[in-house]
Every structure is written in C-alpha cells, then in structure tokens.
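TL;DR need structure tokens for one chain.
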Amino acid sequence: MTTTTLRPPARPAGGPRRDAHKADRLWKATPLTWVGLVFGVILSLFPFYWMIVIASRTNDAANSWPPPFLPGGKLGENIQRVLENGDANIVKGLMNSFLVSGTITIATVFFGSLAGFAFAKLRFRGKNAMLLIILASMMVPIQLGVLPLYILMAKLEWLNTMPSVTVPFLIGGFGIFMMRQYAEQAVPNELIEAARVDGCSTWRVYWHVVVPALRPAAAVLGLLTFMEQWNQFFWPFVVLADPANPTVQISLRSLNTAYFADNSQIFAGTLVATLPLFVVFVLFGRQIIGGIMEGAVKS
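>> reply
TL;DR here they are.
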C-alpha cells in the first residue's frame, strides 16, 4: 500500500518579504520629499516672519530698499502705538470680535450637531427636501443677500450693534452638512436603539450618546467657524458705520486710512489680531488633528 503525502503549494520565492519591501519603499520619504516639505513650510511661515520683521521696525526701515530681513527692537513700541490709537480703537475691536466669534462658534457647533444628528439618524417627513434646501443655501454668496439683510437689520434697529453681525450667522449650511456626514458614520444605530430601550428621550440620546461621538468633528467645525468669523470683514464693514464700535478687522482698516500709511503700525496691529487665532489653534490643535485623522480612518 502506497502512502501519499500532501504538500502545501510552493510559495513564490521571496513573496512576503518582497511585498514587505515594496511597502517599506512606498512609505519611505525620499530626499525630494523632504525638500518639498521644507520648501512648503518656509513658504507658509515666511509671511508671519515678515510681519514680525516689519512690526518691529520703524516706518522708514519698512519702506527702505533693500528691505530688512531681521527683526528690530521697536515691536513693543509699535504695539503700544496701535493700542493707543484712538481712530482704530483696536482694544474694543478685539473684545467685540471675541464676543461675536465665540457666540457664533458655540451656536454653530450646537445647532449644527443637533440638526446633523436629526438628518442622519431620525426619520421625519420632508427630511431629504430640507437637506437639499440647506445644501442649496451654501451655494448663495453673502453678497447677494446684503441688501435685504441690511434692510432687515435697519427695521430691527440693529445697525451699529453687535447683534447685526452675530444673529445672521448663528447657524450655517456647512456646519449642518458636516455634522450630518460625520454622525452618519460615527454614531451606530445599535447604540441609539440601546439608549431607546433604556428609556432615553431624543434629547438624552443626543446629549449623552451623540455629543461624545461628535466631539472630534465639533472641534474642527468650531475652529473653522471661529477663524472665519474672526476674519470677517465685508458684513461688519456694511453694518458697523460707527468707528467707536468696530470689530478687529474694521479696526485694522482704520490703521490704513491715512494718506501716508504707517506700515510698521499696520503690521503691528495685524500681529496683535493674529495672536488670538494662534492661541486657539495651539490650545485645540491636538483635538482638531485627532478629529481629522479619525474622520479619515472612518472614511
């Protein structure tokens, strides 16, 4: 009687090792990659560095040729001149911008996550039609609605007040759509059904189940909204005609209204207006990057 021995099929020579070697080569950065990254970082940081250089010089040095490439010793003096400039009123502008940007950011994250949860996980009549209307509103630029919105603010007697630059932007289509897309993947239906079985109302499901899951996306949306509103210039310029009650961007514009522009003071004011954004990004950067990476893994 002959015994037959079954052997596994022969593997190609160097199969797994060859695949691993290809994967290592795919993810290994080449010298050209490093050169491109360093060049991109330099291009990104050079405007900020140049702003500090001009803000720390006198106006004569800022207009000289060749221009200086090293910071001077006038930064503190120029910042003090900006803060004491009565025409710009930049301290009031910073306070108003903090109030407006913070209020809009909180409202956008709250209403956006609430509406996004409803569009992603709840069933109600007309849901798709309402979502299409919200998406269509994102395609309309603000310039087309300036005239009717200005008339509305005038009838409400809100001109030259902070509600005129705050209330129209408390919720936006982008925030709703972003939170809806994230909630669709980040919140399992089984988790919501389990909360329903435990007797949770819709509000408790949102607050105790949905909000923790949407926290990374909320951090990203909050940063984007704060930056957008902090840099908002067009609409505040339309409705805030009183120079005593500006936002920070209107204050910066007031620094450049003279016939002979003081570039060192303008750049010093721009530096002061940029620092809050830098602080916000440093404080919330880890959550924002984590949210972006988590969203990339989910998708």
